[in-house]
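ugh ok fine here u go
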Amino acid sequence: MVDIIRARGDYSIAEYIDSEKGTVSRELYVNPDIFEQEMEQIFQRCWLFLGHESQLPNPGDFIVSRMGTEEVIVVRDRNDNKIRAFLNSCRHRGMKVCRYDEGNALVFTCPFHAWTYDTTGSLVGAGFYNRPDASTDTLPRENWGLSEVAQFKNFYGSLWATWDPKAPSFEDYLGPFAESLRHCLQSSDGEDNGLEFFTPFQRHRLPTNWKVPGFTSVTDLTHTAMTHRSSQAAGLHQDRGQGKEKPTIPFPQEKYAIGDHSLGHGGMCTFYNQAGVPQYTNEWFEPGVDDYFRDATERKAQKYVDRVMAPHGWGGGHFAIFPAVMVDSWRLRWYHPHETGMTERWTLSGVDKNAPKEVKDAVRHYSERFNGPIGFFESDDMENWNYVYPASQGARARKLDYFFRNGIGHGKYDDRLPGVIVNGSYTEEAQRARFSRWLAFMEAKSWDDLYPINKSSARRIW
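structure:
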């Protein structure tokens, strides 16, 4: 049954979250039975991020991405130029049909028995297929193509997919966060789908449960002062230039921690209280880079002269899309579970696709210094994440709950993002929203129990 997990006896999955105390059992992070249920209940249903179209500029280009614990091939077809995604597993005996991270291919041929698939996923050949003694008339090729995702979406250049044909549209899945994602995928001058992302992208493993970074990264506003203390003390936030200048004309805005308990999305948020864009301030050491971004900001200001920017992005904070995608205006980070205590983090760093080479180089160099396991900032987080799992899985440790009560009961709905609760900047509202949606997925029998959301009866557990 989907609502029963064997851990410390027979527990309903809901019993691991105490809404009155504001606590979550460590079993959610260390129990392999719960992990397996997550792979079935969440990662087989949710819309998951695969990559960006700039990684596939030419017909035949492919990348190998992941959906939960499984690899998928994302490929641009050679005939219709359409991007599709398939499970990286031969239909004959299950061997990987693609063993490269990226490249360009005419076909994908399984190295086991030479079953061969074209860029539409169709089976076009097999070993000894034309020999009369192979009885290949018993192989109906039209029925044995690669397993394709149920739904695929190119959203302003970002690529998403779900295995569940009953899942709502991607836009409905995003809800009020759709415009925020669109905003983050604009170039710095406000052009839709205006970014490209550097390749090869950063990828590294973390010996921790996927929810440790996936449910706290970009939603944990209290960790910076301590976790990144060394970076702050060294002034490394000034790495791009002389440090952020104070704008001569302050832009009216409000900052909150937010969470949508019905959809699971949330994070840091800035609401802009007037049309237009904030004044650009110098940030870069490299000559000419500030000039480029200042001109781009002026062009964006003209486009937004009568428009208010969507929350998030371009100085407005970053947010999480359930289950484990973190969105900024200059990078996309997402977490792939491998097993209970092993997670991969992938990072795509973006830049205006029409920017000159010197600007792209400056942004790329900054991203390399900032992100990744040897970056001056992100490595601080990984130091914590790497120790959380081993320190939580012992017989005594796993009996102790995690605390998520900060700010509980103080949040309010805000019409600027319908259905989203806003709370103090240093509360844990966003984490609680993610656990609300996590529990809904873990208990649901299908998408019929998850969407459409009946706002009058939506389950808010905190």
